Amino acid sequence: MKTNAIQKWSKILLILLGIGLIVAIFVPIWSIYLNAPQYPEGLAMFIHADKISGEYAIINGLNHYIGMKEIHADEFWEFKILPYALGIFALLCFLAAFLNSRKLLYTLTGIYLLFGVGFVFDFWRWLYDYGHNLNPHAAIIVPGMSYQPPLFGYKQLLNFEVWSYPNIGGGIMIGAGVILIILALMENRIAKKAV
User: Fold this and answer.
1) Which residues are listed as membrane-spanning (predicted)?
2) pTM, rounded to two decimals
3) Which domains does the chain have, with CATH numbers?
């Protein structure tokens, strides 16, 4: 048995991860929901790999009064690269499986984790800027108030309740990271026993 060869179940999982990452390109990655007394049915905004969907035009109109910037998909450089990044990670999953390579699995896992940390930090940075850099001439100014939506979970912002959490694509991306870590650790353990 080649010491660099990966287990059959690892190959199957890598192929499934590759398919999942391709799916993540076409479904919402993150969801942000807002509820308020004047919007009892709620407002929703969905972040995809290459666009924003949902009721973000209404959210833009409301946020204008408190000095927040409008959300426009063409301002996000991330939308230009994220579909390609997910496609490359899917391709690397397929290559690691078909080339039967532990080294490629380890490399893929490391790069994907760095990408994941960078992705989360970039999203947090955008939320921070969006909620803190306010127009000083806005119609409604609450001294000392910022409106940064939560990266994950719940937050009360004035009379709005805001929830932020992964959608289908985000769940796939998070799951892929967890599975890659498990596969890399298990394959490393098997490789050490084979020596």
Assistant:
1) 12-33, 81-99, 104-127, 168-186
2) 0.88
3) 8-194 (1.20.140)
